[in-house]
C-alpha cells in the first residue's frame, strides 16, 4: 500500500509566552486518515498546538509543515489558501451572535478570497452542512436561540463546510452533558468517515477518545458500529500533553497499560448507567 500523505508535521516546535514554553520542542507527523486524541491538563498546550497548526500562533523555533510544505515563510495571504483546507472548531465556539445560523456556517465560504463559490452554492453547502449535523431547520435562527449542544453542532457544520482535509476540534464536548457529548463525538466520527477527514481532537473526556478509537460510522447503514480492526482503519492514537511536551503517545491499549500517574489521570474508568465497568 502506498504511504499515506503527510498532512501535518511539527519539527521541534517551541512556542513561548513571556519566556514560558507553552509548546516545548514538539515533533510529530500526522498522515492522511489519522485520528489523534489530545488529552492533557488545563494549560498543557492543547489549544496552542492547534492554533500553531493553523498559523494563528507562530513558533519561536522549529517548523510547521502542512500537506508536506514548510509554512515558515508564508505570507498571511498564503496562509489563507492553506487554511481553506483546514476545518476548525475553536474552544471558544466562535459563532457570531449577530449572524444567522446559515450565515455563520457560510462564513468560511464567504471569506474565501481566492475562489469564492456563487451565492447559490454557498447557500446549498451551508444547508447541507447543517443537515449533516441534523440542524436543517435552524438556518434563519441566531445562535442565542439554540442550546449549547446545538451551537456546538453549528460549529461542526462550519468546520466541515469547506470539505477540509484536516479538521481540528478543540474541546468539542466541553461543558456538555454526557448524552449531548455522545451526539457530538458521533457526528465527528460520521464526518471523519463520510469525508475521509484527518481528525485531531483536544478533549478532557477520555470517553470521547474511547469512542473515536473504537467506533465508526457506517455510511451504508447510517449507524455507528464498532471499528472493524481488519478493515485497514488507519487507527486512532492518543497523545497526552504535560507542560507543552508529550507525556504519552500511543494506542488506547498502550495508554491503558501506562504507569505514569499524570497520564493515568486522563483515563477514567468507563462505566455504564448502572455503574458497571465497560
Ligand atoms: N495568547 C496567549 N498569551 C499568553 N499565554 C498564552 C496564550 N495562549 C496560551 N497561553 C498559555 O499557554 C499555555 C497553554 O495554553 P493552552 O490554551 O494551549 O492550554 P490547553 O491545554 O488548551 O488548556 P485547556 O484544557 O484549559 O483548554 C497556558 O499556560 C496558557 O496560559
Ligand atoms: Mg484549550
Report on the architecture of this protein.
This protein is an alpha/beta fold. It has a single domain, classed as P-loop containing nucleotide triphosphate hydrolases (Rossmann fold), CATH 3.40.50.300. The protein contains nine helices and twelve strands. It has helices spanning 46-53, 76-83, 101-110, 119-132, 148-160, 178-194, 206-214, 252-257, 261-264, and strands at residues 6-17, 20-31, 35-40, 61-66, 69-70, 86-89, 166-170, 198-202, 215-218, 223-226, 236-242, 245-250. A six-stranded mixed β-sheet has the order 6-7-8-3-11-12, with helices on both faces. Strand 7 (166-170), helix 6 (178-194) and strand 8 (198-202) form a beta-alpha-beta unit. Helix 3 (101-110) packs parallel to helix 5. The chain is globular. It starts with 5 loop residues before the first strand and ends in a 14-residue tail after the last helix. Bound molecules: adenosine-5'-triphosphate (ATP) and magnesium ion. Residues 46-47, 91, 170-171 line the site of magnesium ion (MG).
Concise synopsis of the structure shown:
This protein has helices at 46-53, 76-83, 101-110, 119-132, 148-160, 178-194, 206-214, 252-257, 261-264; strands spanning 6-17, 20-31, 35-40, 61-66, 69-70, 86-89, 166-170, 198-202, 215-218, 223-226, 236-242, 245-250. It has a single domain, classed as P-loop containing nucleotide triphosphate hydrolases (Rossmann fold, 3-Layer(aba) Sandwich), CATH 3.40.50. The model has no long low-confidence stretch (mean pLDDT 91).
Amino acid at each position: 500500500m502506498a504511504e499515506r500523505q503527510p498532512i501535518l508535521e511539527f519539527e521541534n516546535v517551541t512556542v513561548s509566552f513571556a519566556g514560558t514554553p507553552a509548546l516545548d520542542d514538539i515533533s510529530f507527523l500526522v498522515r492522511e486518515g489519522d485520528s489523534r486524541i489530545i488529552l492533557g491538563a488545563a494549560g498543557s498546550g492543547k489549544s496552542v498546538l492547534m492554533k500553531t497548526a493553523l498559523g494563528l500562533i507562530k513558533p519561536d523555533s522549529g517548523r510547521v509543515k502542512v500537506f508536506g510544505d514548510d509554512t515558515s515563510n508564508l505570507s498571511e495571504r498564503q496562509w489563507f489558501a492553506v487554511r481553506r483546507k483546514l476545518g476548525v472548531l475553536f474552544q471558544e465556539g466562535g459563532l457570531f451572535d449577530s449572524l444567522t445560523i446559515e450565515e455563520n456556517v457560510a462564513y468560511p465560504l464567504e471569506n474565501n478570497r481566492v475562489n469564492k463559490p456563487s451565492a447559490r452554492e454557498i447557500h446549498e453547502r451551508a444547508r447541507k452542512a447543517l443537515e449533516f449535523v441534523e440542524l436543517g431547520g435552524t438556518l434563519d435562527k441566531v445562535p442565542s436561540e439554540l442550546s449549547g449542544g446545538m451551537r456546538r453542532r453549528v460549529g461542526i457544520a462550519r468546520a466541515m463546510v469547506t470539505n477540509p482535509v484536516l479538521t481540528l476540534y478543540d474541546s468539542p464536548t466541553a461543558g456538555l452533558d454526557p448524552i449531548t457529548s455522545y451526539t457530538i463525538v458521533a457526528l465527528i466520527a460520521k464526518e471523519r468517515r463520510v469525508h475521509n477527514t484527518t481528525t485531531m481532537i483536544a478533549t478532557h473526556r477520555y470517553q470521547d477518545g474511547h469512542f473515536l478509537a473504537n467506533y465508526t460510522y457506517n455510511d451504508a447503514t447510517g449507524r455507528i458500529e464498532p471499528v472493524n480492526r481488519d478493515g485497514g482503519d488507519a487507527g486512532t492514537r492518543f497523545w497526552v500533553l504535560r507542560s507543552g511536551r508529550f507525556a504519552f503517545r500511543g494506542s488506547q491499549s498502550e495508554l491503558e497499560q501506562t504507569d505514569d500517574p499524570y497520564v493515568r489521570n486522563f483515563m477514567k474508568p468507563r462505566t455504564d448507567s448502572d455503574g458497571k465497568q465497560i
